[in-house]
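Field reference: sequence -> structure
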Amino acid sequence: MALAYIRRTPLPPQEWTELKTLLTQRFQPRDLIAVYKAQFRTRKRQRSEDIPRYMDALQKLAEMAWPLLDPITRDEMVADQFLNGLDSHELRIQVAATGIRRIEDLMRVARSLEAVENQEAGHGRPCGDQTRRGSQTGREPKQKQRG
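Structure field:
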């Protein structure tokens, strides 16, 4: 469908940015972009959501909201919203205090700090692809029963 649209244009695009602009204008209407922007700005981490899934959701929303924005600027916006959307005030402060701005590093630090926070609090919350103590399912190992 996209290829057929490009072939019908009077002057086929010569560069990637031209192609991206044409396709965005055709397949991503402005009213949808406004919705994606609002969703991005209000996106918070869900209670059961692990950090990588939260970051993935932000990145996808940012790409849909600002498809023509350069990736570096978009990543800066994602990093800001990532921090703003963390549901733990302590975690938000600790991650922000590191001064880290690269998305991969933000995720790594947030996961590590959250793991420590959870361990100190004595509960497990998903931090990524790590499981809680016990088996691969994340359940505690069964205790042997005494005779």
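Note: The radius of gyration is 21 Å.
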